Amino acid sequence: MNFDFSDDEKMVRDEAARYLRDNCDRASLRSVLEGEAPYAKSVWKGLCDMGLPGTAIPETYGGAGAGYLTLCLVAEQVGKHLAAVPFSSSIYLGAEALLAYGTEDQKQEWLPKLASGESIATFADVETAQVLTPESISVSVQSGKLSGQKLIVPDGAIADVAIVLARSGPESLGLYLVNLKDDSVAISNVASVDPTRNTATVVFDQTPVVALSAGDGWQQVQNIYNRAAVMMAFEQLGGATAALDMAVAYAKERFAFGRPIGSFQALKHMMADMYVALKLAESNCYYAAWALSTDSDDLPLAAATARVSATQAFQLCSRDNIQVHGGMGFTWEFDCHLYYRRSNYLTLALGGLSVWEDKLVSSLPTPPTTKAA
Amino acid sequence: MDFSDSTEEAAFRAEVRTWINDNAPTYLAPFLAKSGFGNTITGDYDTLAEAKKWQKKKAEAGWACLQWPKAYGGRDASPIQSVIWSQEEGLYGKLSGTFIIGQGMCAPTMMAFAAEEQLARYIPKLASGEEVWCQLFSEPHGGSDLAGLRTKAEKDGDEWVINGQKIWTSGAQHSDYGILITRTDPEVAKHKGLTMFFLDMKSPGVDIRPIKQANGESGFNEVYFDNVRIPDSQRLGEVGQGWQVALTTLMNERLAIGGSIATGYPEIEALVTSLPLESGMAIDNPMVKSKLADWYCKAAGLRNTASRALTAISKGETPGPENSIGKLVAGGMMQDIAKFALDLQGLAGAIVDPEIAEGSARFQAMLLRSPAVRVEGGTDQILRNIISERVLGLPEDMRADKGLPFNKIPTGS
């Protein structure tokens, strides 16, 4: 039994942690929050200089080939520091989509650029204000040209290239590679609950596209999401850890009624519950990282489990961090709302909590009997 | 990461498996499989006798209390070997319930504080199950505030005279010996006036009475002491050092390793995958799905946390503080699951007759027993205090009795 990360994996994590601690400062985050920059370019450049986007991209495609266990630990640090960078869009979604379903030419062209950070990728699927379903997709490709609107695309105004889910025929969906810098693409920022992450509406008008490998586009999206969910869960885990740390630190230094507020059981117990949620999520994330790194058959269930637990943990920790801070927690000045915003944004990225609860139950080894009694 | 055994571990596991296959009381397996929550079922066989028989057989072959020194009836095994044994013993491990407190808590305390000749006399018989021990700590006035206990020990020559009452003593009715914490000095601060002993439970003046619990069963006892005499040679630790000795005992409370702590998850999954509701199968109902997913995450979280603890043990390290969350998560979860399972059955959920109720009334049994899980061995609130103070480093709660002599502490009675 060795259910722990190796020293090499931890070393990369520690380097990422050190870099982010020293460079991912609140000023960089707040300039994005205030709309002064679309993302924290210097932080992103620093991560790219360290080669971190390419952590799990194979060496043949310009990556480090260090594997998914390492990438998960890097994701945790990105989440912990609330980095305002397109790491998840470009790597967990863009690079993963290409690795899984790109043609050899597409991989050779794009993966080295994503690994180095020279290019940024994203993933465009949602079109309507409802849970994503195959029926909700009307953006379509005809004769190699893509037309229609994607309502909310993560990092849409930052990315150079997008993998787009589109209708390839009346009854079929496929994945397409699209150059977002093409003149036929209109991109406009759309305000979200988390202004520290870019979101945009993207409109295509007869935009030239190339298809990824043929297949059931909907199923391909599910497979990509299952993998992305593990890495996203590590980001959430990192965020939850930071929010709990912030609450604990404040409760130790803030006095009321002549004593540190952290000595009141009402608050201690709240923080103990945050810790419990965090530890359950952490252990489930570790297992999912293993399932991801070994391409285990258990991946869909492990990913959904990590995703649901990490979502719960980050939501609880960010919510109750505000509660521990009292009125100060509701100011723009304090960072509490940044965790709260990020937690709720990441909850919805890849579909919300109820979607993942549903996936979890559907993945149980004893599948539900749906047939009529 | 790698979930497989090392070569040595695999060899040890094979050895254990062979011995268990050849020696386990297979005739009890069908009954033990039905043992739920809180009780061991052995059909028409006497549970205590069968437990003692299995323990003796294990001890004779060197499979009892694996981590203890061979001289005391153990095997000098490593912690991970001990875990492998438990995993392989599986169902038959349920027979060990009678010995858990003696072997898990009393013995380590004895080993730390008793004299060599006492260890030679008592520990091997504890290992072999020949003698059963209990732990006499909780009192009507000393539960979460254990150090507020009042049972008095007064020195009389070479003996101590004990008067008072203990409560919630598991297995007292069939115990041969017990470890007992008493107050020897009421005029100093409460933690400083305590002294620990071990005693013969058959001593004159010891009166054991079963407690009828809220769920109608009786698994615990009250133990009364009326001028019970204990030789000073059976004192564990110095006079006034009882609290430090008690901490040794409590630190040895068995880690819930191997994900073995009962949560009710497998039972609720089985129910909702087989129960039809008005709108279809229960598991297809979105509300049911949401709750099931949440409980699955908690159960998986505990299992995966246990794997992390095993990893630490395997490397010769001590498991981290994340291991402290087990009972806190499991207790509340079981109570929620029981309530929900009954709700799905409508008024019929109220039936407790195992002949009639769904699943031999297991959810009804859970409903009525689970409140105790949230209290015994540290209440949910005490566990949250431990997590917040010892893990998160938050300040201690303000204590009204701090520094006061025990006999000056307000009691409300």
Which structural category do the helix and sheet elements of chain B fall into? alpha+beta
Instruction: Tell me the series of helices and strands of chain B, N- to C-terminal.
Output: HHHHHHEEEEEEEEHHEEHHHH
* Overall SS class of chain A: alpha+beta
Distance from first to last alpha carbon of chain B: 57 Å
Morphology call of chain A: globular
* Number of discrete helical segments of chain A: 11
Query: Please, what is the oligomeric state?
Result: heterodimer
- Uncertain residue ranges of chain A: 368-373
> What is the tally of beta strands of chain B?
10
The beta-strand count of chain A equals: 9
Helical content band of chain A: 40-55%
Task: Give the strand order, joined by hyphens, for the main sheet of chain B.
Answer: 1-4-5-8
Major interchain interface with per-chain residue totals: A-B, 53 and 53 residues
Short description:
In chain A, 51% of the residues lie in helices and 15% in strands. By secondary structure, chain A is an alpha+beta fold.
Folded structure, characterized:
- The complex is a heterodimer of chains A (373) and B (413).
- Chain A has 373 residues and is α+β, with helices and mostly antiparallel strands.
- Chain A contains eleven helices and nine strands.
- In chain A, strand 8 and strand 9 (259-260) form a beta hairpin.
- In chain A, helix 8 (265-293) packs antiparallel against helix 9 (299-325).
- The relative contact order of chain A is 0.11.
- Residues 368-373 of chain A have low confidence and may be disordered.
- Chain B has helices at residues 7-23, 29-34, 47-60, 79-89, 100-113, 116-127, 242-251, 265-274, 286-314, 326-344, 362-373, 380-391, and strands at 133-136, 152-156, 159-170, 177-183, 194-200, 206-210, 220-231, 235-236, 276-277, 280-281.
- In chain B, the strands form three sheets. A four-stranded mixed beta sheet of chain B has the order 1-4-5-8. A four-stranded antiparallel beta sheet of chain B has the order 2-3-7-6, with no helix packed on it. Chain B has a two-stranded antiparallel ribbon with strand order 9-10.
- In chain B, a hairpin with a 2-residue loop joins strand 9 (276-277) and strand 10 (280-281).
- The longest helix of chain B is centred in the last third of the chain and has 29 residues, at 286-314.
- The mean pLDDT of chain B is 92.
- Classes of the chains: A alpha+beta (373), B alpha+beta (413).
- At the A-B interface, helix 7, strand 9, helix 8, helix 9 and helix 11 of A face helix 8, strand 10, helix 9 and helix 12 of B.
